[in-house]
């Protein structure tokens, strides 16, 4: 079945999916860590009653706010294109960014670990406006470029728009410190902490799923091997499910894995110390990585239906193992040197991806669109 090429007058589904995903990241990052909610008795808009800047602020904080909201402005413009363009798109994107930032700051009034600030509102709005301007200048070249459209039609299936956004987030999800390589979706410790804070009780949900919380070194090694192999296999097979036969699958798979490993290494060096850049290279991670490569070498030639089913099974198995395996004590000792500080918003967004990416991937793999035959 031939696919009609999208003309330059059609909106971009990828841009709209990316916009929704980025808004979700901003919401999570702005309200992280989601604990200690209370009403202080002040208006949530009290931070707007004074125009003076806060007493304590740094250029770093202001710059991070501008950089963080600039993609939002660009994505707003891309999502509106081509129905709304130029100056009007910039104005609408800037207003939307201002309203979103104002809402995030207002809700922070109910979080003791967050402080709403008029400076954050100003810098967020400025970043969104700057991104909207850049988006308006680049929208036509980026979204109407015939070569990119031809490549999109040649390499990727018609239903790949949401999948491309999701897959682009897998390497980014590796930024947040995790106990196991490619070990995404460790939700039970977070849910246990939230329930304990809410109910005032000590709750460990994982203890209901595992009879013994003390594991040997060999058991930790085996768990990490399974988590690494299944996490990598599930993610790469999910990528192969959106590719056409003409796509360079091997090259794209290698690039996909390499980008995740590179971001993992850079994040470890930045968040901990340069000498800890390769702290994630453990015997279990190495064994799981090798097993994952062997599995992908064979499954890369399997039918798409088989790839999709194995991808879902791998992600589910990885979720089960990582949520029933205690955190490695060695990783906990390394985590003691992690000071979030100025990266609180950034780490909140990264944690959002690390927790929920496997669940979004499973939802995507179950979409009915995969049942259509790809040419």
Proportion in helices? 55-70%
Multimeric status of the protein:
single chain
> How big is the Rg?
22 Å
Which structural class fits the helix and strand makeup?
mainly alpha
The total of helices stands at 13
Termini Cα gap: 7 Å
Shape label: globular
How would you describe this structure to a colleague?
With 375 residues, the chain is an all-alpha fold. Helices cover 64% and strands 0% of the residues. It has helices at residues 13-31, 59-80, 86-107, 118-143, 146-155, 160-173, 188-199, 217-240, 249-271, 283-299, 304-324, 329-335, 344-365. Helix 1 runs parallel beside helix 6 (160-173), helix 6 (160-173) crosses helix 13 (344-365) and helix 11 (304-324) crosses helix 13.
Concise summary:
The protein has 13 helices and no strands. By secondary structure, it is mostly helical. The longest helix has 26 residues, at 118-143.
Based on the model shown, name its key terms.
375 residues; mainly alpha
Topology readout:
Blueprint: H1 13-31, H2 59-80, H3 86-107, H4 118-143, H5 146-155, H6 160-173, H7 188-199, H8 217-240, H9 249-271, H10 283-299, H11 304-324, H12 329-335, H13 344-365
